[in-house]
Amino acid sequence: MKTAGENEIKLALITLQNEGDRQPPFGLLYLATYLEKKIGFRNTKIIDKNFEDVMAGVREYNPDLAGISAMTIHYEEASERAKAIKKIFQIPVIIGGVHVSLLPNSLRTCFDIGVIGEGEETFKELISLYQEKKEFNRADLRKIKGIAFWDENGKIEITARREFIKNLDEIPPLDYKYADKRYFEPKPIIGVGKLARRGWILTSRGCPFRCRFCATSDFWGSGLTRFHSPQYIVSHIKYLKENFKIQHLLFCDDLFTLDRNRLKEIARLCEKENLLDGLTTTAQARANTVDDEMGEICRKLNIKILQFGFESGSKKVLQWLKGPTVSPEINLRAIEISSRHKIKVFGSLMMGVPGETLEDMKETYEFIKKAVKKGAYLFLFVATPYPGGEFWETAKDRKKVNEEMDFAQLSLYSCHNPLLLDERIDKEKFAELFLETRKLLRFQKYKMVWEILLNDPLGIILIIFRNPFFWFKRISLWLGKR
């Protein structure tokens, strides 16, 4: 294989995140960093929809190979982009991300290869192969684990599953030179009530729980959770502070509060390095992992926001979704404990779950009233089937979804076409109750915006002035979605 140089192939990695999700494309950053650190491949450019027109960026870069990362909601757009790229450049296009990993049989002919699951090692092998031979032939592809491709008969062929990287510390820390630096400009931190430069870190992969609606276990491995060492984590936080002057850090783990001894060590090392001076943080938790000891650990980590999946106010529905270790009472207790430790609570709930009755939904309505009184900020969604997990299988059995569908139809916000709602539930009554419940939450959005305006009015005005169209559009969409 050639060393990096002018004759090296050029790789374009394309992200299709929504404008409202302005955070770096971590999956693509992991790939770009891994390729550089492991095989010396540096000719990678991330083309980011948040900051440039995708096709214009591809034309300017003129790559030899393209990769697209797509969640289910972006799969239709990813397919259209792939068709356009192949038509203009006649180059291979690889698709990766959660959607194709969980639904490889939905691979479309506009994609030459689908990367299934954890992609670093698989992508490294694909790039090495293409670097050497300037093509992908089926005999070579069959030797690479964790991919889907088209066989000689035009059928999808899926290779053996790729083993997970056991020691996460073997994965190099993200090199943000591949990301747009505008991600690190000050932004409003909703819930904290300030403008801040944000940073992000993923300290683990996976979750031991198997919630019926969640695909995390299917993607990262059933019941498998792998952790970065506290030393690795603290080193990366230090890098983010020194190089990007971050003021707010988001721990992006699916469940950050799983191992309290690990968190204690992270807090100890952060304190030793004075890393939390001037740095607030956000993390995700599960209600039954939160007690006063955990609240104190979170306080030491300067966590100002804990995000929970409360899911339902009905004990029957909640325990069907998440198991017997949670209940509405445990969820309310987690809010109270968090508040005692001066941590704000953000929580999500859903309606339209299989087997859920209108009476169950009314219990969610009552739970929301109690939780809001205790200070929680809540978000309500329509239960929606995405690939992976039992929701998808239920919807598939009911002929509501399939591998050939238009995946753009899947929406967390459309209460007029709930795909998982039982047939015996009147859709109009469901929509009426859903919208009535959502009204309970609308004022919270205005409260969040008001907090930031009060804390830093001049900063907010300056940020909006720099990009008034983006902020008007984003705030309007955000205030409208509840």
TrEMBL record:
Limits of the Radical SAM core domain: 193-444
Keywords: Iron, Iron-sulfur, Membrane, Metal-binding, Methyltransferase, S-adenosyl-L-methionine, Transferase, Transmembrane, Transmembrane helix
SUPFAM superfamilies: Cobalamin (vitamin B12)-binding domain, Radical SAM enzymes
The keyword rRNA-binding belongs to this UniProt entry's keyword annotation: no
Gene Ontology MF: a single term: 4 iron, 4 sulfur cluster binding
Superkingdom of this protein's organism: Bacteria
Pfam families named among the record's database cross-references: B12-binding (PF02310), Radical_SAM (PF04055)
Annotated TM spans: 448-472
Residues of the B12-binding domain: 10-137
Swiss-Prot/TrEMBL cofactor(s): [4Fe-4S] cluster
Protein name: Uncharacterized protein
Upper taxonomic lineage: Bacteria, Candidatus Joergenseniibacteriota
